[in-house]
Amino acid sequence: MLPSVTRDHPRRPEELLGGRLMSRLDRLDLASRRIFAGKLVGERRSKKRGQSVEFDDYRTYTPGDDLRFIDWNVYARFDRLFIKLFLEEEDLALHLAIDASASMDTGTPNKLVFATRLAAALAYIGLVQNNRVGATVFGVPGAPGPVRIADTRGRHQMARFGRALIDAVWPEGRGAAVRASPAPPPGGAFNEAVATIARLRVGKGVMVVLSDFLDPGGYEGGLRALGAARGYDTFCAQLLSPGEIDPEREGERGLVGDLRLTDIESGRSAEVTLSPALIRRYKERLEAFTGGLSTFAAARRMTHLMLRSDADLETVLLDTLRRRGVVA
After folding, report:
1. Buried b (16+ CB within 10 A) or exposed e, 268-300
2. Residue ranges making up the domain that contains 61
3. Are residues 291 and 312 in the same domain?
4. What pLDDT digit, counting tens, does each position of 20-59 carry?
5. Which ranges of 5-71 would DSSP assign to H, the alpha helix?
């Protein structure tokens, strides 16, 4: 892919999401194929029976049960002690893992800008529903390591979360850092960062990984560690630009003729002649790569989603992610 025509990005939290989009997101909530126990009372219905105000069922009294939950009306009728059971509400944690590597900061529209806005939208949904929301930004060129945004909850925290997200993705001097970026670790920057996220996880819940998954070191080690953690319902959102999907659309005339291509992650260069046959082979390899990622994720009970950076964010949230079970 080519570097973005414009490297402009949101600089204030209010630039991440418009008021119209936020009003529509108010109706959404996080979804999960699994039920996780939360730390605090939230908005999510649990399969556990607890002590909320909504009655669910009875069971026979056993010594040691809390006498406050005996139904004395039933005792008066049947001369037997029964305990009232209630549905318990629990919170659901959301953790966003955002790949801010050099390959993500490319494409038209820019993939990293799209990923950050999508992360902000998902965070907003979680905060509005009083779920715990945290994030980790990794792969920033020149940065010493991943940046963790601490868990928070409540609609009033959205501005603070948005500010922290922008500062983590686009730290001061990022442009110079790209040119001075150190060599990636032997196992790959993606694998090392995601394995760290899995090792340092807090609580349980929904994990959304936003990345192009184009790290030279691969993605398998990181996703394998995340799957082994067994604490997340994980969604792998693969973000690609239109030019990566269809090279003929890259630039004003498309990518044609004799070119010198440089890998923005590794710095390696190669001279190629782009012909229709070569572009066809590229598309076949891209399809095989995305198919392999989808299969690898599914084998670990993760969901793979392909998203284009030119997609309408509102459509992605209200249609695509709802159909794929990320939100409801």
Report:
1. eeeeeebeeeebeeeeeeeeeebeebbebbeee
2. 48-90
3. yes
4. 999 999 999 888 766 555 444 444 444 444 444 556 677 7
5. 19-25
